[in-house]
Design goal:
Elements lengths: L1 E6 L5 E7 L2 E7 L4 E7 L7 H7 L2 H30 L8
Antiparallel strand pairs: 1-2, 2-3, 3-4
């Protein structure tokens, strides 16, 4: 797998990869990542096409997905540690 390009963004690292005929785009923030595999279609062979695909509407959806990922993680952590914290102290009679 090799990096064929990057797309500049103020809060995300966006990297475009090529492996054989397959192209993928990875979006990263400080805690999470999303990867979109674009397949082996020759339409994805040009870097300019991929840069156009990553438009403002798509980026908004990517950011929303990051928010959903964070909420899911925080919810799971809250469930885990809330149930454990109830059993920290023994009952005193």
């Amino acid at each position: 797998m090799r990096i064929i390009g990057e797309i500049q963004h103020p809060t995300l690292k966006i990297t475009i990869f090529k492996m054989g005929e397959r192209t993928s785009v990875k979006f990263e923030n400080e805690r999470y990542e999303q990867t979109y595999k674009l397949g082996m279609d020759e339409r994805w062979a040009r870097l300019e096409t991929i840069q156009q695909w990553v438009d403002a509407d798509f980026l908004e959806k990517v950011l929303q997905t990051f928010q959903q990922m964070h909420q899911a993680q925080m919810s799971a952590i809250s469930r885990l540690f809330t149930s454990e914290s109830e059993n920290i102290f023994e009952e005193i009679i």
